């Protein structure tokens, strides 16, 4: 996954995350059921729910209505420094449907891209699956299978309906950092392999020092700190292209970076692999596999199966392969085969595949430098939080997913073309108007023993 720094939150003024808890709006998590599966069958987890990421929530002074952060700026009287800010600012509950365009129905979650509301509009969102009212569900992926249904038919070039895992703390970091009173209930503790610096509170402190407004996004900026952690991208997709990608890190859990260690001068100078080892069928030479009317038809609902294979066939083994299958119209579809000269014709992510891909595409070998599949497997064994989001990309217009990227490279060079979208597509200023009605729906989440979550 490329930078998510441009995830656009509410377009009205009260946009920030915080650590204290406000009392103006009750936080009621929308229910979202899912299933745990074994060879004996699947059991519905009916009490599960989702919570909205803290970066989208309204934050104001405790006992009042003054914003702690407005547009791209912190209120210096409330937030003269990071530690004082968490004591002065309260994080409110969310009106999921009315303000953010987020709705659930049984085992189905729909995220709208643009949601008009009484304060203007909300653009994009990010949510987490909850185990209880105050803790995220933790998934241990080794020797397991994760399956879900998805509808990306309404996602054009430039949008991304993403489902992935991040190695976040189950409580959102509240035990490690007591200043964080909001915890997982209010969506705190986010991190990923891009070491994002737009996270406004990290490790119980405001990220206000050195904060600079984004040149493109009127409601975002970057501070001196970033939030790094292992990330397993199960699904990054629109109706044109898709990729699944492990991103290992040398650190365990959330690691707060600062300065150059956040990749400010060199994006590869962090504890994580920002590029990952991606399997994008189009980029790997099968240009007729995924898309509307193709073998995996994105005009219809798709079942996506991801298997985490270990060398011992047990949860204590070393991750050696990440397999992908699709099911549509009752038919199991094997993943596409690599069709690039010099690359073996495999259909899954293995160490050999990643070594060959990096060599042939002449990509940086940060994946190997950060431990490759073995390191990703250690994170998967410790446990990760399920994240679902819809977003547009102020940094690279999503061209790394669905177009030719980098745009300065020759499109005929192996690895450059990732989809059929034009290189001038995906600009947030365009898609937030032309695709305002877009949405993604995730449903029927199943997790368990390999071979038990799909038919």
TrEMBL record:
It comes from Sphagnurus paluster. Its EC number is 3.2.1.-. Residues 409-432 are annotated as: Disordered. CDD domains: GH7_CBH_EG. Keywords: Carbohydrate metabolism, Cellulose degradation, Glycoprotein, Glycosidase, Hydrolase, Polysaccharide degradation, Signal. Pfam families: Glyco_hydro_7. It is an enzyme of class 3 (hydrolase). It catalyses: Endohydrolysis of (1->4)-beta-D-glucosidic linkages in cellulose, lichenin and cereal beta-D-glucans. One of its GO terms (biological process) is cellulose catabolic process. This is Glucanase. Belongs to the glycosyl hydrolase 7 (cellulase C) family. InterPro entries: ConA-like_dom_sf (IPR013320), Glyco_hydro_7 (IPR001722), Glyco_hydro_7_sf (IPR037019). Gene3D superfamilies: Glycoside hydrolase, family 7, domain. Coiled coil: none annotated. Residues 1-18 form the signal peptide. One of its GO terms (molecular function) is cellulase activity.
